[in-house]
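**User:** Once you have settled down, spend some time on the protein underneath, comparing sequence with structure tokens, and judge whether sequence predicts the tokens.
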Amino acid sequence: MSIFAIVALILTICIFIYLYYEYAGDAIKRRRTIFEIKMLWMGTKGNYEDAIMKQFNVGTQPYKQAQKICVLTGGNKGIGLGVLKKLLECEMTVVLAVRNPKEARESVEKNIDASLIQNRVSYEVCDMFDIETVKRFAEVVHQKHPRINLLINNAGILPAPYKVTKEGYISQMAINYLGHFMLTHLLMPNLRAGAEAIGVKSRVVSVASNVHEVGLINYNDFHCKNYYRASMAYANSKLAQIMFAYELERLCRRENWDIQSFAPHPGVVDTDIFQKSLVNHIPGWKRFLFKTVEEGARTIVYAAIEPELEGKGGAYLTNCLIKAPVNDIAHDDKECEKLFKYTCNMLNIQNFGKENFNNNEE
């Protein structure tokens, strides 16, 4: 055994001894510490997988798809901005769902060349934290774009103090999962019309994360009222997203809808979502181990436009490869259906994807 291995072993033992004596008598502290260790492990594991699978993360070469219209949530910063740029390289029309259209426009025009933007980007108000603004945004899309071909559910939040919507939905679950669930429901008619118009199946792309592995679906405390940890709420919401993507694919097949559903994990990417996380305080970690925004956008765009994925909906992807989710519950069709029905009931959705917009839930 090398001297480095011995030192690492001794340090590991010391850390566990310290944690034991520090938190053995405090269940809450112990639970929080154990989960943060799990999250740090998931990040490290993600860094390792990104490194060894880098050769596959080449993405899809942009090709002309001027006939397609895409709705993209949160496309004015972070990974979303990288996704937007690649979609514009395909000459698509893109509708951005953003909280502040003025700030979003400024960000896009600052970071993307005007020759790519031209008149192909529109900015509409949509706060995924507020279900009512999601409904109003969907109405705007219905009026302006009766046919769409892509819906990319990208907007997300990780670090945040405990906050709930007026309905009582916790922020991570509301923004990462519930808002997108409602938006997908409302835009299903547009997606079906888009597929019929160009003869190519539409796609719903729900941006996932490898931290789904440590997520839980706790129906007794779905919104973390009894116990809250921002990273835990995030992991739970990402597991819910993957389960939704799987059940949506099954629904589309049952109904013979020409729509496919994918859940890509972009990798561990250097964005603002990590600004309050532990890794932000480790010198050099993000610079050397995290993906760039452009690299992170590749798998999402791959899921959105790659021709070879035709007929392969219901897939979780990482580094432009189809991979099975690690969390066992995501493989359980009955559990996915249970969560789907639970969510429909929570959001008062009576007939997912089928109702006329004007008769939708209030």
Notes: The first helix runs from residue 3 to 23. The chain is about 50% helix and 10% strand.
